Amino acid sequence: MATDYYGVLGLARGASDNDIKKAYRRLARDLHPDVNPDPEAKERFQEVSKAYQALTDPEKRRIVDLGGDPFETGGGGGGSPFGNAGFGGLGDIMDAFFGGGMGQRGPRSRTRAGADALIRLDLDLDETVFGTTKEITVDTAVLCDTCTGAGTAPGTQPATCSTCAGRGEVQSVQRSFLGQVVSSRVCPTCEGTGQVIPEPCATCGGDGRVRSRRTISVKVPAGVEDGMRIRLTGHGEVGPGGGPAGDLYVEINERPHAVFTRDGEDLHCRVTLPMTAAALGTTLSLTTLDGEEDVDIRPGTQSGTVLTLRGRGAPRLRATGRGNLMVHVEVETPTRLDAEQEKLLRELATLRGEDRPGAAPEGQGGLFSRLRDVLK
């Protein structure tokens, strides 16, 4: 039973190249060994990478669409929906009815582009607000220094595949009720490249790349937010045969702050004031990301008041200026009073006429009065 490579990527048959690329990147972001050490995730990542390779190579995808498996010996002909008739795909059908030659596609290159890589970077709030430079360690495929991507041992060269004579495909002739049928499929010896490596490089085993752990410097711009990604061109996986490297994406993970929360370019914090300070007014010393700030609390400040410190938020990433710091005020009512404090508060309540406050909710009396006026 051939593997459903579309299903591995969570796609329906006929998906576009762009959909395939997006699905692969989405899955690789969560399953890549650099970000997910779970052995099951590693195995799943290999399945996803194999599916991506099968569906982005035109020849392999042709075999998949016909129900075969391009990674099986013989190019997946055994999984062809045409059974034992010997058809390997549309090109083989054309060969059968119109003669050989129409299915010739030529060898494909051994050099292919590498995949993108993803790594998450944990940052504190002040680092995302003001920007920083970080050293990160990545583990990706890099160019083999011994063979510089050729895959051959020093002093040797690839040789023409003797199975397909360098064509990258092999043909077979079978007899059927239609007569003599000529079919073509990817060469199982050279996997369609038309070349073999008699003496592979001892360092990379003929792949042209090796895995390496290295340190990269990442410049984080001021104003980045949680979930944003920084693209480092050419720092991803080097492709097979020493192909061009993909890109490395650094995803920002902003750690929670003990005081401030963030909403885009604005910062928020809460301060608690004693009832007396809110009533009489005071000056509050607040530690912001920029340093100490004096905040004026006006007399009579109510709980729920929001004070705005302009220009004390995060920088606008693609514009000038900064957001604001929103200070949310909460007024604290004392829960325990000694005898003297209680006496003073009762005297204050008497002076203000608040010793026997009404029980009606605020605004209720006015509403009923207006209703009475309307119904008169």
Keywords:
Chaperone, DNAj Protein, Chain A; alpha+beta; four-stranded mixed sheet; 376 residues; 15 strands; elongated; 3 domains; disordered C terminus; Helix Hairpins; HSP40/DNAj peptide-binding domain; three-stranded mixed sheet
Mean pLDDT: 82
Distance linking N and C termini: 86 Å
Structural class: alpha+beta
Total count of helical runs of at least 4 residues: 9
| Proportion of residues in extended strands | 25-35%
What strand order characterises the main sheet?
Answer: 10-11-15-14
- The radius of gyration over CA amounts to 35 Å
Question: What is the CATH topology of the largest domain?
Answer: Chaperone, DNAj Protein, Chain A
Shape: elongated
Low-confidence spans: 73-104, 364-376
Give an overview of the whole structure.
This protein has 376 residues and is an alpha+beta fold. The protein folds into 3 domains: 1-56, Helix Hairpins, CATH 1.10.287; 77-122 and 139-209 and 230-253, Chaperone, DNAj Protein, Chain A (Ribbon), CATH 2.10.230.10; 261-355, Urease metallochaperone UreE, N-terminal domain (HSP40/DNAj peptide-binding domain), CATH 2.60.260.20. It contains 9 helices and 15 strands. Helix 2 (17-31) packs antiparallel against helix 3.
What's the short story on this structure?
With 376 residues, the protein is α+β, with helices and mostly antiparallel strands. It is built from nine helices and 15 strands.
What's the layout of helices and strands?
Layout: H1 5-8, H2 17-31, H3 39-56, H4 58-65, H5 90-98, E1 117-123, H6 125-130, E2 132-143, E3 159-160, E4 169-176, E5 179-186, E6 195-196, E7 209-220, E8 229-232, E9 248-254, E10 261-263, E11 266-274, H7 275-280, E12 282-288, E13 291-297, E14 306-309, E15 325-332, H8 339-351, H9 364-375
Parallel strand pairs: 1-9, 11-15
Antiparallel strand pairs: 2-7, 3-6, 4-5, 8-9, 10-11, 12-13, 14-15
